[in-house]
UniProtKB/TrEMBL annotation, chain A:
Organism encoding this protein: Streptomyces bugieae
A Pfam family that the UniProt record links to this protein: Proton_antipo_M
Family classification: Belongs to the complex I subunit 2 family.
UniProt name for this protein: NADH-quinone oxidoreductase subunit N
Catalytic activities: a quinone + NADH + 5 H(+)(in) = a quinol + NAD(+) + 4 H(+)(out)
Entry membrane topology: Multi-pass membrane protein
Subunit (UniProt): NDH-1 is composed of 14 different subunits. Subunits NuoA, H, J, K, L, M, N constitute the membrane sector of the complex.
Alphabetically ordered keywords of this record: Cell membrane, Membrane, NAD, Quinone, Translocase, Transmembrane, Transmembrane helix, Transport
Domain NADH:quinone oxidoreductase/Mrp antiporter transmembrane: from-to ranges: 180-486
From TrEMBL, chain B:
InterPro entries: NADHpl_OxRdtase_5_subgr (IPR018393), ND/Mrp_TM (IPR001750), NU5C-like (IPR003945), Proton_antipo_N (IPR001516)
Gene, per the UniProt record: nuoL
Main subcellular localisation: membrane
Organism: Streptomyces bugieae
Presence of keyword tRNA-binding: no
Residue intervals passing through the bilayer: 33-54, 89-106, 118-135, 181-204, 216-234, 246-266, 278-299, 372-394, 414-437, 480-501, 521-546, 627-645
Protein name listed in UniProt: NADH-quinone oxidoreductase subunit L
Disordered: annotated span: 448-475
PANTHER family given in the database record: NADH-UBIQUINONE OXIDOREDUCTASE CHAIN 5
Domain NADH-Ubiquinone oxidoreductase (complex I) chain 5 N-terminal: from-to ranges: 69-119
Pfam families: Proton_antipo_M (PF00361), Proton_antipo_N (PF00662)
Subcellular location, record wording: Endomembrane system; Membrane
Topology with respect to the bilayer: Multi-pass membrane protein
Keyword list, A-Z: Membrane, Transmembrane, Transmembrane helix
NADH:quinone oxidoreductase/Mrp antiporter transmembrane domain: residues covered: 135-417
């Protein structure tokens, strides 16, 4: 009876003041980076619909570059206006945070995406089909692999220029993900960037079955993990009676001030909080590729078109770690004594697992996939620090790592034989003799992955380990250093393979790329060396951006 | 005036640089350039000496600070010189004898095509040795110490085409390294103890330091001295060092470098005075070595090796004296200077003999040479009389004082040391008379073809002689060689007497080394008488054995002691068994440990990681269903672990 009455009172309260529902107040200027990207994505779909086929490539390329550059400029503008520090606040009715970490990560994602667009647009590597330059993407993805329709599409010289708007949609989601300030926005953003990625994974021009298999695996497992995340969101709502980060944090630390009568039976039940929190974490750990939720990584990295792999490995990781940081630092700081030991365990098995399994890999893309798992473990060590240094070290590491990753995968697209990219490691033997420059560049990236001084990898690793050690996680750092030693083995093995082994007679050749890929690789190398030689400016930048708004 | 000090070192250094970098165009004039720079250094030394004499005893020390070498925080190493009476004595000895030997070498090395390089090395040696004695701190001294080691190595192995010379150079270098390690440890100890290694502060603050630390520093300094001065147990290199050209043996391995150990101990007197245990070790080393060297000298048939044994023995005297403390320092240095004269003279004489005998060194192949080389005979003879301590000559004054001081040590120790020193004097007289008799007297054994024997591979007839033995034509050496010998002979005769006039030398050194009169249980006259008696005893026995009886041109088998002495009292055998084989075993064991344990652990880790990797890889089956199950399991563990943490 009482519950009926309370429901009734809700109804009457809602109906009692018609016309008084306040219109949502949206700070468009502060959301402009996301809005520009998403708007450009919609525009890109329009181009697909209305612009003639031969002009689509250039219009899409131009639109994507302009949109990403404009969005980056907007991020810089917001940061310059003080939204990264003094004016940080929560915009869009509490849904999106505009603060230092958000702007830093959005800037990183936009730069990475800009470079990714270069690799997406590369059209010189694959031999021209019927006189037309083609890129890494299938002529007509909907056609059955090897079927007549596919052959016709190839013959007609079709290309999938839709990849650009799809990419922009993914970027839009990624921009919101680390800034999301309530669990529903978090979930929506997750789906907004995940779905385009599933599609992109399926679009490889060569080895299409492998590509489609990887997309399907990614989709199934992604959906599975989304379900966990959503379930976690529901449990947290059940616990706190709200989905906003600040609201949940308040309940966690102080207990609710006024318990909603309708939820009196469940609110402030610790089990809900713990299970819900664990499930939300699991959803995020899936995206960063932490053990034991990493199984998709090698398969998807291998099957996806290499430019997509590079983009995914760099940008997704940035976005997902950003969201993870915000959840742990804003929502759950009150229960850090509960989640820290668990995350310790996750970080340890992620570092060790990634490094150990990578030893026996024979495919360069799978090797890099396991390497990205190990790196996720290193970054987790910084996340666990729960200090301002921890946040800034993770921000720096993400920036440094994403450029190395993009560059490395861009180099992988260059090494080719008759079957397309030659990703078998054994084929890379003696590459340093044939193409010293390409091999040297790749060696720089590998050394950065391994964390050798004078590369950005060292500066980043040093920063996260320092933060972790200062927060009392000494043993975690020891495990991290051991894992780094194990990881150094397989990175350096590739260098040895390239420079100190005899080239094989039927070995792959190195394709001469257009200025697009060259630029991407050059930016990757430059960033790797600059962040390695003079990291202090960027460490300071990350340090200034290290405070979350609540 | 103090600005001239650096010039002492700079002159030979410039000479060395010129000669070693100048290339072939200096081949014709190189020996004159080298001699000129040595003589220039001597001239500067004499000028400084004259200046020093003009000042009162307490104001004679000069300092010159060139530059700060390594200023790091509280650590300060300077390149600075200190010229006091002790350094002055060495400067005059080194540059004086050094210049004479440069002159001698012009003749001796005349036919050597690498003469320019030889003079370059000699100049390098002079520079390093002067740096050693002029340094005002232990670190700079160490630089000179290593420098003379290098020069010694280069000159011993100067005839590197002979494997024996190359080996001897390496041996000298390695044995010296052991001593050098002692010096470097001593310097480190000084730094940790005193916070500096400049002579002034270190030697002034010994009173405030624990005796244990001073004993440690003293023992390390003694180790260094043993290496450089060929004292037991690091004596083994000196005999082999005679492979070098004879002027080198005279300058470096008799007169100057080998006395660096005596300098080091005398210079560090304040440390030893405060560490009686270290002093006891010093006198023990000195006493043992003076007998050891003398016994070895008795058995050698190679004239240079006999003289090398004698050098070892005489330095033993000096070390013994230096170990006696203030009653001995001045006499150690005095004997060092007189020894510099007569031993250099003896070596130059030996070189002159070899020069006239086709480089023959076996005294059993000499005999009756006094007729053929009269100047060599007379100068060598005067050196001989000086070394055995014939009354009135240099050696008599200096050695007699050491024996006296040894008795004055007091107690049983004094009797043992005095007895050893007296016994050494007798043996010295014996072996030096033996050398003299075998070389210049008796039958002319070199006229007959050598008897072939397994020990004498040189008995093979020289190539080109058609198998016929052509006896050498002994002749006197050119003036450029005899002149230095004459000058050194004059020094051998008069230096000791001059120094002892009115205790001039002791008073000269007293401000630096301090001096105390010992209280000998036996009177000075008794000691002098005893010394003279044992001297004639030694000469007499030698005359009975080698003067009255003909000397066999092939060495007899001899007693056990003789055979052992010929093998340098088995020092090399000992080193070989203990250090070479022991070291070999140690390294083999370590290598095996490295292979099995270290490599095993490393490779084992790598292999197990690889195995683990292969195992974990199997989890990656490629099936989405199994991935999903693993994710589910992972989620369950995550949730469970979180709940568990709450429970804890």
């Amino acid at each position: 009876m009482s519950s009926v009455a309370s429901v009734h009172s809700l109804w009457t309260a809602a109906a009692g003041a018609p016309g008084k529902i306040p219109g949502p107040h949206i700070e468009y200027a502060q959301l402009s980076p996301t809005l520009i990207v998403l708007g450009a994505a919609v525009l890109g779909i329009m181009i697909e619909a209305f612009v003639p086929r031969r002009s689509r490539y250039y219009s899409q390329l131009l639109l994507s570059l302009v949109a990403l550059a404009a969005a980056f400029a907007a991020v810089i503008g917001l940061a310059a206006a003080g939204f990264g520090s003094s004016k940080a606040h929560v915009a869009a009715m509490g849904a999106v945070a505009v603060d230092g970490p958000a702007l830093f990560l959005q800037g990183t994602i936009l730069l990475v995406s800009l470079i990714a667009v270069f690799t997406f647009a590369e059209r010189r590597l694959d031999p021209a089909a019927h006189g037309k330059h083609v890129d890494s993407f299938a002529a007509q993805p909907a056609a059955v692999p090897g079927g007549a329709a596919e052959q016709a599409a190839v013959k007609a010289g079709f290309t999938t220029t839709e990849v650009f708007p799809i990419l922009l949609f993914a970027v839009g989601g990624m921009l919101i993900f680390p800034a999301a300030n309530d669990l529903l926005t978090l979930f929506v953003a997750l789906e907004v960037f995940s779905l385009p990625l599933y599609i992109l994974c399926a679009l490889a021009r060569r080895q299409r079955l492998l590509s489609q298999e990887s997309a399907l695996k990614y989709f199934l497992l992604g959906a599975f993990s989304s379900a966990f995340l959503l379930f976690g969101v529901a449990l947290l709502y059940g616990y706190a009676g709200t989905v906003t980060y600040a609201g949940i944090a308040e309940v966690v630390s102080d207990g609710a001030k006024q318990i909603d009568p309708a939820l009196a039976g469940t609110m402030s039940n610790d089990a809900l909080l713990l299970i819900g929190g664990a499930l939300v974490l699991m959803g995020l750990l899936f995206k960063v590729g932490a053990v034991p939720f990493h199984m998709w990584t090698p398969d998807v990295y291998q099957g996806a078109p290499t430019p997509v792999t590079g983009f995914m490995a760099a940008a997704t990781k940035v976005a997902a770690f950003g969201a993870l940081l915000r959840v742990l630092y804003v929502v759950l700081p009150g229960m850090r004594w509960d989640w820290r030991p668990v995350m310790w365990g996750v970080a340890i098995i992620t570092m060790l697992g990634g490094a150990i399994v990578a030893i026996t890999q024979t495919d360069i893309k799978r090797l890099l996939a396991y390497s990205s798992i190990a790196h996720a473990g290193f970054i987790l060590a910084g996340v666990i620090a729960t200090s301002k240094d921890g946040v800034s070290s993770v921000l720096f590491y993400l920036g440094a790592y994403s450029f190395v990753t993009l560059g490395a995968f861009a180099v992988v697209t260059l090494v080719r034989d008759a079957g397309g990219e030659a990703t078998q490691l054994s084929k890379w033997a003696g590459l340093g003799r044939r193409s010293p420059l390409v091999a040297a560049v790749f060696a720089v990236f590998l050394l950065a992955f391994a964390g050798i001084p004078l590369t950005s990898g060292f500066a980043g690793k040093f920063a996260v380990f320092k933060a972790a050690a200062q927060s009392g996680a000494g043993w975690l750092v020891v495990v991290g250093v051991i894992s780094s030693a194990i990881a150094a083995f397989f990175y350096i093995r590739v260098i040895v393979l390239m420079f100190f082994n005899e080239p094989k007679a039927e070995g792959p050749t190195v394709a001469v790329p257009s200025p697009l890929t060259s630029t991407a690789i050059a930016i990757g190398v430059t960033a790797t060396l600059v962040l390695g030689l003079a990291p202090q400016y960027f460490l300071d930048l990350a340090g200034h951006a290290g405070v979350f708004v609540r | 005036m103090e600005n001239l000090i650096a010039l002492l070192v700079a002159a030979p250094l410039v000479g060395a640089a010129l000669l070693l970098c100048g290339g072939k165009r200096l081949d014709r004039t190189g020996h004159w350039i080298g001699t000129l720079f040595a003589a220039a250094s001597f001239a500067v030394g004499v000028a400084l000496f004259a200046d020093m004499l003009g000042r009162s005893a307490d104001h004679r020390a000069l300092h010159q600070h060139l530059f700060s070498w390594i200023p790091v925080g509280g650590f300060r190493a300077d390149v600075a010189f200190q010229l006091d009476q002790l350094s002055m004595t060495f400067v005059l000895l080194i540059t004086g004898v050094g210049s004479l030997i440069h002159v001698y070498s012009i003749g001796y090395m005349e036919h050597d095509e690498r003469r320019r390089r030889f003079f370059g090395y000699l100049n390098l040696f002079l520079a390093a040795m002067l740096l050693l004695v002029l340094a005002d701190n232990y670190l700079l001294l160490y630089v000179g110490w290593e420098g003379v080691g290098l020069a010694s190595y280069l000159l011993i192995g100067f005839w590197q085409h002979k494997p024996s010379a190359a080996t001897a150079a390496k041996k000298a270098f390695l044995v010296n390294r052991v001593g050098d390690m002692g010096l470097s440890i001593a310097i480190m100890l000084m730094f940790t103890t005193f916070g500096t290694f400049a002579f002034g502060p270190v030697l002034a603050s010994t009173g405030a330091t624990s005796e244990g630390k001073l004993t440690a520093i003293g023992l390390m300094l003694l180790l260094a001295a043993c290496g450089k001065s060929a004292q037991v147990p690091l004596q083994s290199w000196l005999g082999d060092a005679m492979e070098g050209p004879t002027p080198v043996s005279a300058l470096i391995h008799a007169a100057t470098m080998v006395t660096a150990g005596v300098y080091l101990i005398t210079r560090s007197g304040a440390i030893f005075n405060a560490a009686p245990d270290a002093q006891t070790a010093v006198v023990a080393v000195g006493a043992v070595t003076l007998l050891f060297g003398a016994i070895v000298g008795c058995a050698k048939d190679d004239i240079k090796k006999a003289l090398a044994g004698s050098t070892m023995s005489q330095i033993g005297y000096m070390i013994l004296a230096a170990g006696l403390g203030p009653i001995g320092y001045a006499f150690a240095i005095m004997h060092l200077v007189t020894h510099g004269f007569f031993k250099a003279g003896l070596f130059l004489g030996a070189g002159s003999v070899m020069h006239g005998m086709n480089d023959e060194v076996d005294m059993r192949r000499y005999g009756g040479l006094r007729k053929y080389m009269p100047i060599t005979f007379i100068t060598f003879g005067l050196g001989y009389l000086a070394i055995i301590g014939f009354p009135g000559l240099s050696g008599f004054f200096s050695k007699d004082k050491i024996i006296e001081a040894a008795f004055a040590k007091g107690g049983t120790e004094g009797w043992i040391l005095g007895g050893a020193a007296l016994l050494g004097a007798a043996i010295t007289a014996f072996y030096m008379t033996r050398v003299m008799l075998m070389t210049f007297f008796g039958e002319e054994r070199w006229r007959n073809a050598p008897t072939p024997s397994p020990d004498r591979p040189s008995a093979e007839p020289a190539a080109g002689t058609g198998g016929e033995y052509t006896p050498p034509h002994p002749h006197e050496s050119p003036k450029v060689m005899t002149l230095p010998m004459v000058v050194l002979a004059i020094g051998s005769v008069f230096a000791g007497g001059l120094f002892s006039l009115n205790e001039a030398f002791v008073k000269w050194l007293e401000p630096v080394t301090s001096f105390a009169h010992g209280h000998s249980p036996v009177s000075a006259t008794t000691v002098t008488a005893a010394t003279t008696v044992v001297l004639f005893l030694g000469v007499g026995v030698a005359w009975l054995m080698y003067g009255r009886r003909p000397v066999p041109s092939l060495a007899p088998r001899g007693s056990l002691l003789t055979r052992a002495a010929r093998r340098d009292l088995l020092q090399d055998d000992f080193n070989h068994i203990v250090f070479v084989r022991g070291g070999g075993h140690l390294t083999t064991t370590l290598v095996q440990l490295d292979h099995t344990l270290v490599d095993g652990a490393v490779n084992g880790t790598a292999a197990s990681m690889g195995g683990l990797s292969g195992l974990l890889r199997q989890l990656q089956s490629g099936f989405v269903r199994s991935y999903a199950v693993q994710m589910l399991g992972g989620a369950a563990v995550l949730v469970a672990a979180t709940l568990l943490m709450r429970g804890v």
